[in-house]
Amino acid sequence: MELNGDVETSRRVQVRFITKLKSPMKIPTTSIAIPSNLTRMGLSTIVNDLIKAGNSDWEALPFDFIIDGELVRMSLEQFLLAKGISAEKILEIEYIKAAVPRKQEDPCLHDDWVSAVSGANSRFILTGSYDSFGRLWEAGGQCTHLLEGHKDAINSISVINKKGVESKTSVHLATASKDRTLRLWRVDAEEPFNHPRKVTAYKVLKGHTASVQSVVSHPSDDMVCSGSWDHTIKLWQTNDSGAEGDLASTKKRKVGTDAKESQSEAEAVSTLTGHTQCVSSVAWPEHERIYSASWDHSIRRWDIETGQSSWDVNTGKVINCLDVGGEGSSLIAAGGSDPILRIWDPRKPGSLAPVFQFSSHTSWITACKWHGKSWFHLLSGSYDGKVMLWDLRTAWPVAVIESHQDKVLCADWWKDDCVVSGGADSKLCRSSEISIL
């Protein structure tokens, strides 16, 4: 077997490669002797050669390697010494597909900064821009729908879950804007149109007194919550029927002379107060709890029934983004005015210190998002123009995406194997074929 580098002068260790991957990526689990100075590149070469020995049509893939629950990011020799692992016994090394994008799609151009992106709908990528428009993009990069109505930049966009069911005929959305309003949209995806079809909001949510920075949907109900520069978090009903009995008070008005239906205005169901600066980001992963991040340096967890904060950490930094996910959907990832991505575990009693800190960015972190199906993986975006993919089993990014020529303002996962991001270069960038599962 031909290996790169000076391996003959290195001592050899007995290893057994194991994997949860399916055929044809499984190889025999018999032990073999390999040089101890191999890094993941050399290990990947060995695994690819062993797979190819049983399948001549095999095309090499990059692999990552796990020893005792941790990704290997140095030579085997260095790793064994650092972890105090004996090289005298047979070493079990698990291999997984490396989480690196293998394809860069052509960027989707906007007329201004791309300030919001959502990959929550499997059929469309959703974006919001400083030009005040929201857009829906199909997989091929074609803009199919234009959301028209906001008077200023869109800061955030969210798919409304509608009882947790993704409709085959319509998409329900919420947008938050610098114009101090939220708007609710129903996009009839199957209706024939000429690209791009213009869509008008069915409801305008008014009540914030400053720019609305973030909006997120309830996990399984027709509600959204929002965070604003007015320091408050508001909860809203999103029912589009206009029926009496909605918890939010509504009134209807006509939208233009040729509007097909009237547009409602609604007030918030409730307001959560306690932050003393801009509420920059909100997350709603559980029915009873909302999480918020603020420029007052705090992250809070709110009990919806009582309206009180049940967990509060002072980070010492301006916080611009947060997401809740990871192991058991309980880990809180957040980033802000320094280049460090921090992760807290609120289940740990008596400690408010981060359980992980990742420090490879060089500027303000603007976005962080857990992968929807992996406990280990999340992404971050930064003013340094980079999107980084992280795995909790190593302190280094597993991939760095440099598709933007300016600040990254937003980022998300789409369809599990694609990262979508928007930036100050007015581009929606898509990096696909990422192997997470």
Structure commentary:
The protein is mainly β and 437 residues long. It has a six-stranded mixed β-sheet with strand order 12-13-14-16-21-20, with no helix packed on it. Strands 2-1-5-3-4 form a five-stranded mixed β-sheet, with helices on one face. Strands 6, 7, 35, 36 and 37 form a five-stranded antiparallel β-sheet that branches. The chain contains two helices and 37 strands. It has two domains: 12-97, Roll (Ubiquitin-like (UB roll)); 103-432, YVTN repeat-like/Quinoprotein amine dehydrogenase (Methylamine Dehydrogenase, Chain H, 7 Propeller). The two termini are 29 Å apart. The model is unreliable at 1-8, 242-250 and 255-261 (pLDDT under 50). 5% of the residues lie in helices and 43% in strands. The relative contact order is 0.11. It is globular, with a radius of gyration of 24 Å.
Based on CA inertia axes, which overall geometry fits?
globular
**If you average the pLDDT, what whole number results?**
90
Radius of gyration: 24 Å
% residues in beta strands: 35-45%
End-to-end C-alpha gap: 29 Å
Largest sheet: 6 strands, mixed
CATH superfamily of the largest domain: YVTN repeat-like/Quinoprotein amine dehydrogenase
Strand order of the largest sheet: 12-13-14-16-21-20
Number of strands: 37
Domain count: the total is: 2
Q: Quickly count the helices.
A: 2
- What share of the residues lie within helices? under 10%
Question: CATH topology of the largest domain, which one?
Answer: Methylamine Dehydrogenase, Chain H
Function: Required for maturation of ribosomal RNAs and formation of the large ribosomal subunit.
Subcellular location: Nucleus, Nucleolus; Nucleus, Nucleoplasm
Protein name: Ribosome biogenesis protein WDR12 homolog
Organism: Thalictrum thalictroides
